């Protein structure tokens, strides 16, 4: 047996299971570790945030989501202004250092002042901004690190790092919150957000030495910056039909997410906060366990064999059937099952597929228009959907069955947009290859 066969069983497994080439192994595993760390840091705090939501009315929560949208717009604008003036090699590390410092600041304020509803609401809003920002920056970096040929094969495997981190993260508050202390979880997350800085340095070396993608997009180790207009990301989004379609795809996803979230928090209001935290953490564990298996063994095969149209439309089509089942059987256990299936499908299939869409655009679009789509459109959808849900339930008096039927119609539209986007991506990729 060769030395490579003896010492590289991981390479052999990933080659067979997910078509990862030996020269891509180190970069794939480091990218896995990168997103694992990010998601673990976030999911340590997510159950704490979600447990707070049942203490507030639908109207209060809608206002919080409205605040999240406006803070997200401000954050993306500031990001667009900073990214135009900061060199690439400092850009991505700087984002994670800034968020680490913010969580350390929340820890200091909360331990100095004590628990207060205003602090809880501020934390809820800021963590909601962070939840999209950190992962948007990560995937922007990934879509410039790997080539268009590599992305369909590797993004599913890399996405399992997000799912694994989302398993480890909620396990910490689920099992150790009493011993660690809730607010001390912020310091743990802050420290973890500094780990990717070293990983980025190693990935940049592999870009040249093993991946051979130094010319795919600008190198973060080089002295390069983007255009200086902080509004260019918004303009690129509004004037590009392809990007507008991605925004619509995300908007429909947000509607699915919001409707499930609001209905779950209503049904969980009967439990105390500790039990609610454990249930939310249990959902996270189930979601990410299922997502890992799917991403390793199915995502790459679906995207390479059936194409992007099928990849992006698959989960929306399943959601049509899922919502119809909820309408026929409006119970907590059924809704939890839908939530698990929806989120696992998003992590394993829809999200990697969506990120592949950005491998056919330039760096300006990825780093400036992508955050507008991932954060502003997402949080704007949150805000609009939250108020729409409040109107459907408070004004029209719809219950879970009525909401589920309405959501099934939305899911059908989501599937059609996904299929169109997949075909457009394949057309653009062919044109880029020919040129």
Task: Give a verbal description of the structure.
- This protein has 435 residues and is mostly helical.
- It has a single domain (20-211, 231-430), classed as Up-down Bundle (Growth Hormone, Chain: A).
- It is 84% helix and 0% strand.
- It is built from 16 helices and no strands.
- It has helices spanning 3-7, 9-18, 25-53, 58-83, 88-113, 117-145, 150-180, 184-192, 196-211, 232-239, 241-268, 273-305, 308-328, 332-356, 363-395, 400-434.
- Helix 5 runs antiparallel to helix 6 (117-145) and helix 5 (88-113) packs antiparallel against helix 8 (184-192).
- The longest helix is centred in the C-terminal third of the chain and has 35 residues, at 400-434.
- The chain is globular and about 55 Å long.
- It starts with a helix and ends with a helix.
- Residues 1-5 and 219-223 have low confidence and may be disordered.
In short:
The protein is an all-alpha fold and 435 residues long. Helices cover 84% and strands 0% of the residues. The protein has helices at 3-7, 9-18, 25-53, 58-83, 88-113, 117-145, 150-180, 184-192, 196-211, 232-239, 241-268, 273-305, 308-328, 332-356, 363-395, 400-434.
């Amino acid at each position: 047996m060769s030395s490579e066969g003896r010492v590289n069983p991981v390479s052999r497994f990933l080659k067979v299971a997910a078509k990862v080439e030996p020269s891509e192994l180190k970069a794939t595993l480091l990218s896995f570790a990168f997103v694992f760390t990010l998601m673990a840091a976030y999911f340590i705090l997510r159950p704490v945030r979600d447990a707070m939501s049942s203490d507030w009315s639908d109207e209060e929560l809608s206002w919080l989501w409205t605040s999240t949208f406006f803070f997200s717009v401000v954050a993306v604008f500031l990001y667009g202004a900073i990214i135009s003036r900061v060199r690439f090699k400092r850009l991505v590390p700087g984002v994670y250092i800034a968020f680490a410092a913010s969580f350390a600041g929340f820890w200091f304020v909360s331990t100095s002042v004590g628990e207060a509803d205003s602090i809880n609401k501020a934390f809820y809003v800021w963590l909601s901004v962070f939840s999209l920002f950190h992962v948007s920056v990560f995937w922007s970096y990934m879509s410039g690190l790997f080539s268009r040929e590599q992305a369909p094969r590797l993004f599913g495997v890399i996405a399992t790092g997000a799912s694994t981190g989302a398993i480890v993260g909620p396990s910490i508050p689920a099992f150790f919150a009493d011993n660690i202390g809730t607010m001390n979880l912020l310091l743990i997350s802050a420290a973890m957000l500094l780990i990717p800085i070293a990983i980025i340095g190693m990935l940049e070396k592999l870009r040249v030495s093993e991946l051979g993608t130094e010319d795919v997009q600008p190198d973060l180790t080089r002295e390069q910056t983007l255009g200086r207009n902080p509004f260019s990301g918004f303009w690129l989004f509004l004037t590009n039909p392809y990007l507008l379609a991605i925004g619509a795809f995300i908007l429909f996803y947000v509607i699915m997410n919001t409707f499930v979230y609001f209905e779950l928090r209503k049904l969980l209001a009967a439990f105390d906060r500790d039990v609610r935290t454990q249930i939310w953490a249990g959902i996270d564990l189930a979601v990410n366990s299922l997502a890992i298996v799917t991403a390793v063994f199915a995502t790459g095969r679906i995207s390479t064999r059936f194409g992007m149209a099928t990849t992006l439309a698959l989960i929306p089509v399943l959601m049509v059937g899922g919502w119809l089942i909820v309408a026929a059987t409006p119970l907590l256990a059924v809704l939890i099952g839908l939530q698990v299936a929806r989120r696992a499908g998003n992590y394993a299939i829809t999200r990697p597929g969506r990120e592949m869409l950005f491998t056919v655009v330039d760096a300006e679009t990825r780093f400036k228009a992508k955050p507008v789509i991932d954060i502003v459109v997402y949080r704007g959808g949150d805000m609009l959907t939250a108020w729409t849900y409040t109107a459907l339930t408070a004004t029209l008096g719809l219950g879970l069955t009525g909401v589920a039927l309405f959501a099934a119609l939305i899911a059908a539209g989501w599937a059609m947009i996904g299929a169109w986007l997949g075909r457009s991506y394949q057309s653009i990729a062919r044109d880029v290859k020919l040129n």
